[in-house]
## 1
Amino acid sequence: AQTVTQSQPEMSVQEAETVTLSCTYDTSENNYYLFWYKQPPSRQMILVIRQEAYKQQNATENRFSVNFQKAAKSFSLKISDSQLGDTAMYFCAFMKRASGTYKYIFGTGTRLKVLA
Amino acid sequence: SAVISQKPSRDICQRGTSLTIQCQVDSQVTMMFWYRQQPGQSLTLIATANQGSEATYESGFVIDKFPISRPNLTFSTLTVSNMSPEDSSIYLCSVFDGYEKLFFGSGTQLSVL
């Protein structure tokens, strides 16, 4: 069975600095997708970034980028120029197609606080 | 991306009662899912809401406790029945956009006294 592990329950970073959130996963699949979601206090889950396992190039979305190491099964999120609005819970997620549907598995989350 | 409206945003309920949560999407979607997020925890899939047929429940969740309706491709409801304090959670509706992306509603914060 697939598992997703986020080993950092809480992190903090100074505004304008860079922070990296860790995520590791375990799977025997070759084709899958990885995601980072952000959940601010408003509870809304917001998709931050997506990575296809078959792509070697790391995904980038503005200030957000990932370091995808397929062999190591590692998928970290780097936030550059951190802003106060980045304060949120961040969830790493794994997705694969299975039995006609799509199975998502979420990590336990990392609570990030951006300090002014 | 799909716009998902979820109601109510929060509710406080008495033990033994039921609450129905509504999820409305601004476009037709094939797959809709219901998740539970217990306090301080990650997301757990309750069921996949299938249009025109019975929902597919994950292990540990049963239809009698969490009946789901999906009358069309833009709407679904989740009922939390015979509630107990252990049902206090955030309940999230989500939809799959067909491009490997999952979008979420704003969630329903449920507290059971």
## 2
Amino acid sequence: EPEVTQTPSHQVTQMGQEVILRCVPISNHLYFYWYRQILGQKVEFLVSFYNNEISEKSEIFDDQFSVERPDGSNFTLKIRSTKLEDSAMYFCASYVWTGELFFGEGSRLTVL
Amino acid sequence: KQEVTQIPAALSVPEGENLVLNCSFTDSAIYNLQWFRQDPGKGLTSLLLIQSSQREQTSGRLNASLDKSSGRSTLYIAASQPGDSATYLCAVEGSARQLTFGSGTQLTVLP
């Protein structure tokens, strides 16, 4: 069964460092998302991406964040200068048009 | 702003029981509602998707209903098993095509 894959599964970084989280969405999907879940809190929307551009972004998705689809398969989330409060599980998701969202296993980011 | 609430926050039942998880949302202008399962430290697995025009969806022992006008959904799990132990999340998709999640119900099924 096709799945969304994310790397790395866990990354530990120092505050102020740049981090890139990578995702390979399901191959025929057209809409891509990043969500995050801070430990013990709700899953929160960050950004949606369609047709090679950002469709929507939340207030969390400030100038420190960026997304890119550098080739036909990868979808990346970059955090330019990490803060302690960026520590969370980051989920990539994708869907075609039915509305059913398929999530990856997540990348756990720990900022020290 | 859409708010999604799930009750109860936690539930512990003996194996074999039928159970109901509740989800409510404040803005009835939704495209769909999706139920997910999340195991500790893992990703979200889609269980059921109900389009706004539908009233319910079934998959195996799971049945989800949607009452859009009252802003409610229920997830019914029949004949629960220890393997059903997980956190169940409800999420609604609104006009901005993004999901708003509830806090989840943590289910423990005791053998």
## 3
Amino acid sequence: AQSVTQPDIHITVSEGASLELRCNYSYGATPYLFWYVQSPGQGLQLLLKYFSGDTLVQGIKGFEAEFKRSQSSFNLRKPSVHWSDAAEYFCAVGARAGGTSYGKLTFGQGTILTVHP
Amino acid sequence: DAGVIQSPRHEVTEMGQEVTLRCKPISGHDYLFWYRQTMMRGLELLIYFNNNVPIDDSGMPEDRFSAKMPNASFSTLKIQPSEPRDSAVYFCASRPGAFLYGYTFGSGTRLTVV
């Protein structure tokens, strides 16, 4: 079964600083990979996704993520953080194969991002 | 499109009572998912449907939980009887047939069982 680890529970950065949120996955083949963001009291919003091809994917709000097969990682980055980026971020993995695993996402525990002015 | 619509947004109930959470997926989406979010366990998949048929309910915690999808535009998650440990935010999500398009989540129902 697939699994996702987000090693950092809470990260604090200053506004304007760069950001990297870590995500490691466990899956027998190349999975589908996603990053979602959740603002307080809201549902999850899709930031970006990786399916195949270019390992550097661009998303909304200036975020990008890089798939590294050798490291089983899919880290999220942003060159300059804005105060409005403060939220909780979730990495998720989806199985490519058939069976009951196909079609469902497994989420990491989330990383809370605090942005200091 | 109004997105995935969940109701109610908040529910406070007493232990032992029946609770019904509702979800209207996006029209045309073939898949519907119910997730539970808690501080301790994060986001857990409870059950998902494909074309109104339950595909995987292995995440349903116990028999007190049941979910139905009588048609393509409506699903319910029922807890009977409710217990304080069921307190959580319950999310419904839907997506089209292709994984490529990702999930769309509702705003969630915050359930408090006292």
## 4
Amino acid sequence: KAGVTQTPRYLIKTRGQQVTLSCSPISGHRSVSWYQQTPGQGLQFLFEYFSETQRNKGNFPGRFSGRQFSNSRSEMNVSTLELGDSALYLCASSPEGLAPDTQYFGPGTRLTVL
Amino acid sequence: GDSVTQMEGPVTLSEEACLTINCTYTATGYPSLFWYVQYPGEGLQLLLKATKADDKGSNKGFEATYRKETTSFHLEKGSVQVSDSAVYFCALLTGRRALTFGSGTRLQVQP
């Protein structure tokens, strides 16, 4: 099976712009989660989607949003970019249904905000 | 809230040395525990996992045992290789479905 894919791999934006990142989960996986990785804060949970519904959300401002499509692909959007949004954004998919299950990560999208 | 504490790095070892990376956790309920590895410029790869007390996860010569009494999940390997150089993350997963990660431990193996 193909792994989790994320596009684009690298992105450069300027402050105030918005950005959309895409994630395709492993075939058959229904849950998609997003994480932010920075040198200062480490790995932090953004949100998780299952069956096109956000099930859980981390402690991030409303500028960070996401959605999931009927084929389980997911996108996350960051509006009004700030310098501090520069990070590696990781998507993970999980086969789970009712119970939490192992999450498998993609290669990430590295966002640089200038 | 949930939390994971890992030993500070970097850990520098010679090839064929023994490795232990300590990990302890705080969680409500009964979490699943994981070790992920991150190579430069890449995402996280699942190394091993354990879902209940006394389970031992193992993969590629690495092992970790879920110790409920000490709330620990230490990563061990008997003989490291240069190719094991990477950052290792301990993580837990509860019913909230959000992984909580430790700060990561960088391992450098010298030939």
